[in-house]
Amino acid sequence: MAKESGNNLALGVIGGGVMAEAIVSCLIAQKVYAADSILVSEPQEKRREFWQQQYGVGVTDENLAVMNAETVLLAIKPQILESVVTALDLATHQELSPLIVSILAGVTLESLESAFAGCPVIRVMPNTPATVGAAMSAIALGTDVSSQQIQIATDIFAAVGEVVTVPESLIDGVTGLSGSGPAYVALMVEALADGGVAVGLPRAIAQKLAIQTLLGTAKLLQESGMHPAVLKDRVSSPGGTTIAGVAALEKGGFRAAVMEAVKASYQRSQELGK
Ligand SMILES: NC(=O)C1=CN([C@@H]2O[C@H](COP(=O)(O)OP(=O)(O)OC[C@H]3O[C@@H](n4cnc5c(N)ncnc54)[C@H](O)[C@@H]3O)[C@@H](O)[C@H]2O)C=CC1
Ligand SMILES: O=C(O)[C@@H]1CCC=N1
């Protein structure tokens, strides 16, 4: 467990958007942090009010204020990192050295360590199923991180789902697969439902069937440890319906398209880091 107590500022958040909310809501629900030990910095007044009312956390529009926390979750868009760091002017606040936990796509540990000089840094790539406590997160450690700080970061992301620790060289690949993956899977669900509607199923039923098919298949693969190809073979009867569908997917380049999607996201993550 990380910190649960009252008065100290245990967790600061820079950027109170979608991912920050997904993560922090789980941390509070699971009592990893008490709401009154969290301070969220967010420029939009409506979002600040929402955070305060919905979660009871402290809010501010001053990023510097959250740097007093033991741990700072960095959850702004990568494109504005430079301006945020310039405004923080950390050179004149060298007494501040929180653990920086960045979820920014593409931004390397080297850039983060230079931007937050003197602060230990951990880079993480989570994904949006964090919203329902079912994230897949990969953690890469900076050069000057203590075992206690590794535990803090692990506790944070274990509260929102599964965690693996990887060398930083793999984080762009993680982004291509599990970071961006929920969008690919959502497209698959939408396409399955559209196919159902095309052959006459009512939309609501088609959507339910599509989601449960995905969930059930994922659960089966996870619990059995079965290779996906073996499962595909088990569903496909000789001369039956499934192999006709699989043949249509192959004709449409389905597997190549999914592989290309992972590679394109990986490459974009690398570009963002330059
Ligand atoms: N959305 C996703 O599925 C994932 C996103 N990420 C990363 O998480 C980060 C945040 O992404 P989202 O939550 O989707 O974006 P978002 O746009 O929902 O959240 C960013 C928040 O930062 C706030 N903000 C803008 N300027 C600011 C400033 N100067 N200081 C403090 N806060 C400021 C915005 O008002 C907004 O609420 C990105 O770096 C992204 O690469 C990582 C994994 C998955
Ligand atoms: O699209 C993006 O850049 C972010 C990072 C991974 C998922 N969403």
Automatic annotation (TrEMBL):
One Pfam family cited in the UniProt record for this chain: P5CR_dimer
Enzyme Commission number(s) of this protein: 1.5.1.2
Gene Ontology cellular component annotations, sorted alphabetically: cytoplasm
Localisation: Cytoplasm
Cytoplasm recorded as keyword: yes
Keyword field contains NADP: yes
Recorded GO MF terms: pyrroline-5-carboxylate reductase activity
Domain annotation Pyrroline-5-carboxylate reductase catalytic N-terminal: ranges: 11-106
EC class of the enzyme, as a word: oxidoreductase
Residue numbers binding NADPH: 63
Pathway it works in: Amino-acid biosynthesis; L-proline biosynthesis; L-proline from L-glutamate 5-semialdehyde: step 1/1
InterPro entries attached to this UniProt entry: 6-PGluconate_DH-like_C_sf, NAD(P)-bd_dom_sf, P5C_Rdtase_cat_N, P5CR-like_CS, P5CR_dimer, Pyrroline-COOH_reductase
Swiss-Prot/TrEMBL catalytic activity: L-proline + NAD(+) = (S)-1-pyrroline-5-carboxylate + NADH + 2 H(+); L-proline + NADP(+) = (S)-1-pyrroline-5-carboxylate + NADPH + 2 H(+)
Main location, first listed in the record: cytoplasm
Cross-referenced PANTHER family: PYRROLINE-5-CARBOXYLATE REDUCTASE, PYRROLINE-5-CARBOXYLATE REDUCTASE 3
Family: Belongs to the pyrroline-5-carboxylate reductase family.
HAMAP family in UniProt: P5C_reductase
Name of the protein described by the UniProt record: Pyrroline-5-carboxylate reductase
UniProt source species: Hyella patelloides LEGE 07179
